[in-house]
Amino acid sequence: MKKIAIICSFNTIKSKRIAQIIADTLGSEKAELVNAEDITTEKFMSYEKYILSIPTWFYGELPNYWDEFVPALEDQNLSGKTFAIYGLGDHKKYPYNFVDAIGIMAQFIEEHGGKTNGHTPNQGYTFIESKALRADGHFWGLPLDDDNEAEKTEERLMGWLKSMKLL
Ligand SMILES: Cc1cc2nc3c(=O)[nH]c(=O)nc-3n(C[C@H](O)[C@H](O)[C@H](O)COP(=O)(O)O)c2cc1C
Asked: Could you tell me how many helices (H) and strands (E) the chain has, helices first?
């Protein structure tokens, strides 16, 4: 069985901490941590199941390392691949762009034939607008707000992994 790629920038502190918890929880037989800062198209395309770490930066944008890499996937066919996305954000400072990057990435993936899972109900989250919110009231992935609600992170994360039957 191919491993799940947990792709995260190793230069982050908060996002990397989450990636490490996921990696430790799933174990090295099931999952592999991959650095988003130096990933190649070939390496990215070699997996079938992914957990992507997509924090939101710059008022509703992808962080630089994803923004620079995503164009390399423009010509790729992501069909047959499944992506779960978690994203750090700050609902107090950015209530109109809360975790937007999750939605930007999820839509890119689906437009290129990939499937997203781990859609999360919006209950318990406070925000005004978010590109990560689907028409069905679920987020495209798992929002985490370690800046304001760090005490909720572990429970949200474990609930998310359980919802995808990874626990
Ligand atoms: C310059 C800047 C812009 C940000 N823009 C947003 C935003 O538009 N939406 C949001 O939800 N969070 C935003 N944030 C909050 C970050 O996503 C949050 O602090 C997160 O924990 C960063 O995770 P990282 O350090 O692992 O990348 C922003 C933070 C900074 C410093």
From this structure: 5, 8
- Choosing from 6, 35, 93, 156 the residue with most ligand 1 atoms within 8 A of its CB, the one to mutate for a pocket test is 93
| pLDDT tens digits, one per residue of 52-98 | 999 999 999 999 999 999 999 999 999 999 999 999 999 999 999 99
SS3 of residue 45 by DSSP: helix
Helices 14-26 and 150-163, axial angle in degrees (round to 10):
40
C-alpha–C-alpha distance, residues 93 and 78, integer Å: 34
Which residue, among 47, 55, 50, has the nearest Cα to 17 in the 3D structure? 55
119 vs 121: CA distance, rounded Å? 7
Atom number in ligand 1 closest to CA 15: 26
pTM: 0.98
Out of 52, 56, 59, give the residue to mutate to test ligand 1, the one with the largest number of ligand atoms within 8 Å of its CB. Answer: 56
What is the Å distance from ligand 1's center to 148 Cα?
12
